[in-house]
């Protein structure tokens, strides 16, 4: 380029027009460069570089660099295409359905199992909102809540009698992954178990009532031989214990098969706590029970079930709190909801056992629980009652420092009395 410009300047100098010669050479060089630029642009658009004149200098470097980057891009594209094919094959092999949703809950992609479980179609449903296809209110609430720890179970949209477990987890930038799992077998087994427990408990109550009647008659008989007094008393106590167990099993079976509790009853919790404290059948040497009413708010739900929660929590507290201890029943409310707290100064619970306390038939001290008549269903009943009332059970305890059972009710279950204006 410099030689070309120098030649133009030399020719102009030869004719006595040095600047005009340099300008003419610069214009010719610019025209050639523009021609090369347009030719390169046309080659890029048509992907035909046969007619592109490489020339020398910078255009040779540009074309060489472009060809290198294009070849590398093609190789990377092939790798990505193979990787995408492998990912798609692996997701299609999954037995669970997977649906990728964007920030607007629109379907980005789904695997083959999502079609079999929920009837989704990859091409047809792409770009559609998931709540326009799967219209279950519980699923829509889960997706909008962005709660990645919870899951819901919904009826299958394509097969009557089948059930799906749904969970939402983060996935990519401003995306989430909806996971669908077939839990039909587990639901059916759970229903069979509940039906078996309910039927067995119901059938056992009739013969047990007859046995208890005869044992009561023998116990009240004045002419009972001395050798029979202790065995009859033991059999009578065990029959009463068995009746209590059957009652709890029936109650738990009914709670497991029930949905959300109605909001027809307005429960005065403070009055309920006082009634339970007064009427509770406890030994004379039991720990003292106090009621702390920090709110006059009421609960919308079923009174019998809330009373069952208080009775079961109070029974556990009395069982593990010494006579010198104290049990506090506290009721408080705020804008975030309400809390029913049962706190004792008893033995406490090892933290490793706390996650399992609400399991059926779980007992921390099996020997002691059996001796005092418990079988590990009380806290399971408490948990299911609270679930029916959209509430949660929080447990805090340390060995030797007592325990605190906190029932947290949501604001929509709590009714606060409207202040009356002074006349």
CATH homologous superfamily identity of the largest domain:
Histidine kinase-like ATPase, C-terminal domain
CATH topology of the largest domain: Heat Shock Protein 90
Number of helices: 11
Average residue pLDDT = 83
Query: What are the low-pLDDT stretches, counting only 5+ consecutive residues below 50?
Result: 367-371
User: How many distinct beta strands?
Assistant: 13
**What structural class do the secondary elements suggest?**
alpha+beta
In sequence order, what are the helices and strands, one letter per element? Answer: HHHEEHHEEEHHEHEEHEEHHEEE
Give a short overview.
The protein is an alpha+beta fold and 423 residues long.
Please provide a written account of the structure.
- This protein is α+β, with helices and mostly antiparallel strands and 423 residues long.
- The protein has four domains: 2-87, no CATH class; 94-182, 2-Layer Sandwich (Beta-Lactamase), CATH 3.30.450; 186-256, Helix Hairpins (Orthogonal Bundle); 265-415, 2-Layer Sandwich (Heat Shock Protein 90), CATH 3.30.565.10.
- The chain has eleven helices and 13 strands.
- It has helices at 2-14, 18-46, 58-93, 112-118, 137-145, 184-220, 226-256, 269-279, 303-320, 366-371, 378-388, and strands at 97-101, 107-110, 151-155, 163-170, 176-182, 265-268, 288-293, 298-301, 326-334, 337-344, 392-397, 403-409, 414-415.
- The strands form three sheets. A five-stranded antiparallel beta sheet has the order 2-1-5-4-3, sandwiched between helices.
- The protein starts with a helix and ends in an 8-residue tail after the last strand.
